[in-house]
Amino acid sequence: MSSDIEMDLAGMKEAGRVVRGEIGDDAKVADFDLDTKTPKATLKDCVDLSQYETYDVQANKVVPPPMNQPLRYIATATAERWDGRRLVTDINATAAGRA
Q1: Which of 26, 29, 55, 68 has the maximal Cβ count within 10 Å?
Q2: Nearest to 92 by CA among 1, 7, 11
Q3: Residue 99: its pLDDT value, please?
């Protein structure tokens, strides 16, 4: 996953584009189980990209997102406790729409 992000960032740099703004989020604990041998928690987060924009530095203008690109995602992460440390064992993001 990080190599995909690195490739995206390299492509943006080559194209003279940057991102600016804020990513909104609203993380909540969806499930929590301390009574198992391996304690586990599931977190859900609504990630809002509506205040996040791509900016073309060379043209000095905002680049609008593609019309089919969702602006909100539901991210779900599961973490377990191993040897006193938290380990993320699963992460998933699902498009939630543009509005």
Answers
A1: 55
A2: 1
A3: 60
